[in-house]
Specification:
By secondary structure, this protein is an alpha+beta fold. Among the domains are: about 50-130, no CATH class; about 160-239. The protein is built from six helices and seven strands, in the order ααααααβββββββ. It comes from Actinomycetospora chlora. This is DUF4190 domain-containing protein.
Length: about 240
């Protein structure tokens, strides 16, 4: 038979075990629910700079082509298109996030348009200058260019200065109003322009040779030329 001490020791050991087992059972039956998981959030969309990039490329091509006289006609379409695309792309991109290409495209588009307008202004001035050129007939020019003389006056070379110059702004017929030869100007009138013409039709095809000069310069009129046109404030005299 076991002693009372052994029985008490066994009871003390078995009691905690049962207690521990009961606590374990209770704790397992009343376990806390799992923590809720955070929903997955996709990353914020990156700024869409496709329009800004396309606008920059189109505006760059338009600005380069605008510098070429004939191909610059295409820039009338490319430069405004690049400007609009760049501005729309800038509007879709938040401030401080990759707006460099859009800004550069808008600037290049504006520059291309400015170059196109300068070309158009220069062409318009040239056309208006040509259309405003007065035409002379042989009968009216002879009466207006030569001084009148009496019948008793001997034939002299006093009329030579009128065909040798000085000549200012205007169109002169070679032979009757202006003698063939080399003409010189000191360029005191600033920028000037001259044309040798095969006829006085006013068409571009009538121009044999031309030049825009600044300062002292010379030009040669041939006897085969039909007329000569001077514009500007320069004075031309035959050498």
């Amino acid at each position: 038979m076991s002693s009372a001490r052994e029985i008490s020791e066994r009871a003390g050991v078995a009691g905690p075990r049962r207690l521990v087992g009961g606590i374990t059972a209770m704790s397992s039956s009343f376990a806390p629910p799992p923590a809720p998981q955070q929903p997955y959030l996709p990353p914020p969309p990156r700024p869409n700079g496709g329009l800004a990039t396309g606008g920059f490329v189109v505006a760059l091509v338009g600005a380069v082509l605008a510098l070429i006289p004939i191909l610059g006609i295409v820039s009338w379409v490319l430069s405004p298109l690049g400007l609009v695309l760049s501005l729309v792309g800038l509007n879709r991109i938040p401030r401080g996030q990759g707006r460099g290409l859009g800004t550069a495209g808008a600037i290049l588009g504006a520059v291309g348009l400015l170059i196109c307008m300068l070309w158009a202004s220069a062409f318009s001035n040239a056309v208006s200058s040509r259309s405003g050129t007065p035409s002379y007939s042989s009968s009216s020019s002879s009466s207006s260019s030569y001084p009148s003389y009496s019948a008793a006056a001997p034939a002299t070379t006093s009329a030579m200065p009128s065909v040798n110059g000085p000549f200012g702004n205007g169109t002169y017929l070679v032979g009757s109003e202006l003698a063939a030869g080399t003409y010189r100007t000191d360029g005191s009138g600033g920028s000037c322009y001259w044309e040798r013409l095969r006829d006085t039709s006013g068409e571009f095809s009538a121009i044999i040779a031309n030049d825009a000069i600044t300062g002292p310069s010379t030009m040669t009129v041939r006897s085969s030329d039909q007329a000569v046109h001077f514009s500007g404030d320069c004075t031309w005299t035959r050498r």
